[in-house]
Amino acid sequence: MITNLNIKIKSLTQKNYDKFIETIYFHKLTCSCKASGQLIKHGYYYRKIKTPNGIMSLKILRVKCKSCGKTHAIFPECIVPYSQILLQDHISIINTYNAGKSFEPIMLNNEFIDESNILYIIKQYLKYWKERIISFSISLDLSISKQCLEHFNRQFMQIKCIPNILF
Questions:
Q1: How far is CA 103 from CA 22, 68, 72, 109, in A?
Q2: Domain coordinates of the chain in residue numbers?
């Protein structure tokens, strides 16, 4: 995976994702094998994302390294790898949990997020992320992505231990 923090997407739509992809200089990207300028467009796959406007099927670009043959998905910061829930919703759920407040406003804001999604996110946070965040004094806000990618080579709340390259 390659996550780009330089370009922010305010509202995630296919059109905005496509514009995001158009701004990337593929010749400047580096593969996890450390080869630079070797990534080429390889294909797409569909990913479901739960947004307040509905469950969206987003076409995600994959690139392939000409040097090692590995493929990588290209993500904007707002997408958490292997999750249908957006980063801002992960952060809201965890901050609400830490404050001991009701999750009802989150579920009202996005009717596609239910109690089981919330319980799963809290469970994963407590199991994989809480101690890391505390140890490195990382703030639970939208600036969390850069710090997690720099310290752990993963987007915040990315559970699988597959390297995520910061671009």
A1: 37, 45, 34, 10
A2: 2-79, 87-152
pLDDT tens digit sequence for 110-122: 999 999 999 999 9
- Encode pLDDT of 16-42 as tens digits: 999 999 988 888 888 888 888 899 999
Distance CA 44, CA 36 (A): 22
Rounded to an integer, what distance in angstroms lies between the CA atom of residue 55 and that of residue 166?
27
* Residue (of 91, 92, 90, 70) closest to 82 by Cα position: 90
Q: How far apart, in whole angstroms, are the C-alpha atoms of residue 52 and residue 71?
A: 31
Residue linked to tokens 């796959």: 45
Cα–Cα distance for residue pair 145/138, rounded to 1 Å: 10
Residue 28 burial (CB count, 10 A): 10
Q: Are 140 and 155 in contact (CB under 8 A)?
A: no
Give the phi and the psi of residue 113 in degrees, each rounded to 5. Answer: -95, 120
> Whole-model pTM?
0.88
Centroid of chain to Cα 52: 17
Q: Which residues pair with 47 in a beta bridge?
A: 58
Please report, as a single letter, which amino acid is at residue 156. F
